[in-house]
Design goal:
Layout lengths: L2 H17 L12 H8 L3 H13 L3 E4 L3 E4 L4 E4 L6 H7 L4 E12 L2 H7 L3 E11 L2 E11 L8 H6 L10 E12 L2 H7 L6 E11 L4 E9 L4 E4 L23
Parallel strand pairs: 3-10
Antiparallel strand pairs: 1-2, 4-5, 5-6, 6-9, 7-8, 8-9
Helix pairs in contact: 1-3, 2-3
Length: about 250
């Protein structure tokens, strides 16, 4: 078959897979080498088919991931402490969570001073939107605040809503990390793929830190959005350039 017709046929077949839901929005496609083997085509032909689909807005590629089906990303606002579940529901989508670890334990050394406690409840979960995993998170909360919590309760409602403590605010640090083997398994991404890594320390109304969380987000499915207020006027004295006279 002529190469031009072959790439159009392959593009049409991939387009139909997406339309039928066999490859979900936000899901990775097989590698170019795998697609070439599957369709009996060269990688040049496969790239041409994928480029056609990219032009049509169906797929895109990203370093560390490969080709994936384009999806409207889940936008998580960093403006306030609204839970991600509320933002998912507000977008008309369905949130769910799965606990993979629930244990009372000694506080990790790095958190003893931060949370002012020797014992914590450690919870690790997978967050999903419309059934697709988009983030993993581990939360440590002071054990005295978490004494009445259970795994079943935390699968139904966010931990922060069950502490019986008025929240006062949080500090947050956002970095990029490579997906570990465990991240890859839980999120369905390639090992080493770049993930958004968010560390948050949440305080009560009196300003005392009560919980720490670390989350890793699949950037193909998630955007972190910050709304910045207008800058306050700068009342500092202005700088004036004074021309220097050349010597006579």
């Amino acid at each position: 078959m002529p190469r031009e017709l072959q790439y159009l046929r392959i593009a049409a077949e991939l387009r139909q897979l997406v339309a039928d839901g066999q490859v979900a929005h936000g899901e990775l496609l097989p590698s170019e080498a795998e697609l070439a083997d599957e369709h009996g085509a060269s990688r040049v032909t496969i790239r041409k088919a994928l480029a056609q689909l990219k032009q049509d807005g169906i797929v895109d590629s990203r370093q560390g991931f490969g080709w994936y089906v384009v999806d409207a990303p889940l936008r998580q606002s960093l403006r306030d402490l609204t839970t991600i579940e509320r933002q998912i529901r507000a977008a008309g989508r369905k949130p769910s969570r799965e606990l993979v670890r629930f244990a009372f334990r000694e506080a990790p050394p790095a958190l003893v001073d931060v949370l002012a406690t020797d014992s914590v409840l450690e919870v690790t979960r997978i967050d999903r939107v419309d059934g697709r995993p988009f983030a993993t998170a581990t939360v440590w909360v002071r054990a005295d605040l978490a004494a009445g919590l259970s795994p079943r309760a935390l699968e139904r409602r966010p931990l922060s809503e069950q502490l019986g403590v008025e929240l006062g605010g949080a500090s947050e640090t956002i970095t990029a990390v490579g997906a570990s083997k465990e991240d890859a398994r839980l999120l369905g991404v390639p090992k080493g793929a770049p993930l958004l890594h968010v560390e948050r320390t949440t305080s009560d109304a009196a300003g005392r830190p009560i919980l720490r969380s670390e989350a890793r987000y699949n950037p193909l499915l998630t955007e972190l959005v910050a709304d910045l207020p207008a800058a306050a006027p700068d009342n500092a004295p202005g700088l004036h350039l004074i021309p220097r006279r050349a010597p006579d």
